[in-house]
Design goal:
With 221 residues, this protein is mainly α. The protein has one domain. It is built from nine helices and no strands. Helix 1 crosses helix 7 and helix 2 crosses helix 3.
């Protein structure tokens, strides 16, 4: 991809929104499909914790990992990114991990049809609207109302887009001081990279812990 970081940022936003929505939706459908079996097994004395752990391992190892790899390979080729496959996959998988945690919660708190709608709607909201792209993180930081800036902090795409854009700026040897200024104009800071990665993976863990509470109650119905 050329030396326009704005184009890089836009591509990252769209790509991670796609991964996020798809991962959330699939997790919702997966848990919705398994809940009748879970309720039957729990009624026969099988551990709810063991079932929940097994479902998460399966979803992570089979669905999330494969989807992230299959998405990353063509995207790196099409965009011509300079960052490594491992770097891009780290963020793509983190996005899928975080959003699937949200998707797992939905069928545990509402009916299957509403769960699908909520899963897609919430993930899309944080992916396409509250993402710090338009207006930028910098513009929100400088705005008179700080609430607008705080609203984007829990957005998976705010962090995924920043991490990928930072990685590409660092990996592309054609980039110069102008791109560093452009990065700063977005409100992106290389020191935020670790924060972005931690947010994606820790939010996925937190959402699963929340999910377990509702999953446990649903399993006993």
């Amino acid at each position: 991809m050329g030396s326009n970081l704005e184009a890089v940022k836009q591509a990252n936003t769209v790509g991670m929104m796609f991964v996020g929505v798809l991962s959330s939706l699939w997790a919702t459908l997966f848990i919705s499909r398994e809940l009748p079996m879970v309720q039957r097994e729990v009624s026969e004395g099988v551990s709810t914790t063991a079932i929940f752990a097994t479902l998460n391992i399966y979803n992570t190892a089979i669905d999330l990992l494969i989807r992230s790899v299959v998405f990353t390979l063509p995207v790196l080729y099409i965009t011509g990114y300079n960052q490594t496959f491992a770097d891009f996959l780290l963020i793509a998988f983190g996005t899928a991990w975080s959003c699937s945690g949200l998707g797992m919660i939905m069928p545990c708190v509402t009916n299957p049809r509403s769960a699908v709608v909520l899963s897609v709607a919430i993930t899309f909201l944080f992916g396409a609207v509250l993402n710090g792209v338009k207006p930028t993180v910098k513009e929100l930081q400088d705005a008179s109302n700080p609430l607008l800036y705080w609203m984007i902090l829990p957005s998976y795409n705010r962090w995924a887009t920043e991490a990928l854009t930072i990685q590409e700026e660092a990996a592309n040897t054609d980039y110069s001081f102008a791109e560093k200024l452009e990065l700063n104009s977005f409100g992106y800071d290389p020191s935020n990279w670790l924060t972005a990665v931690l947010f994606l993976y820790l939010s996925g863990i937190l959402l699963r812990l929340i999910c377990f509470f509702f999953f446990y109650k649903k399993a006993l119905e």
